[in-house]
Amino acid sequence: MSNRKPYVREMTRTWWKDNPFYRFYMVREATVLPLIFFTLSLTFGLGALVKGPEAWNSWLGFMSNPVVIVLNIVALAASLFHAQTFFSMMPQVVPIRLKGKKLDKKIIVLAQWAAVAAITVVALILV
User: Fold this and answer.
1) Closest C-alpha among 114, 78, 108, 76 to residue 95
2) Is 94 helix (H, G, I), strand (E, B) or coil?
């Protein structure tokens, strides 16, 4: 047996702060935190809707709280940021070819945003 110690590189808790690529990645992944709040409040809203008018009005009162409104705005911004980064990566992950030529990245990204806008308009019409 050898008495040599293996090299163990020190890994601090903030290793990702040193590299801009990892810093951006961690910010992008942190966008899930406000979305968790939004998802939970929406789930409780559905539960309140099932329980009856009194529970529903209580939930509406909770949602009209200024802190909750700010958190929902943060969740919307986080969702849009996450969507933008996802859409901008899509042409690299799934390059689309038409007649042997790659489709321009801007066209793919704009098509995705157009789909989001169309779905939003349909949802607003239904509501």
Assistant:
1) 108
2) coil
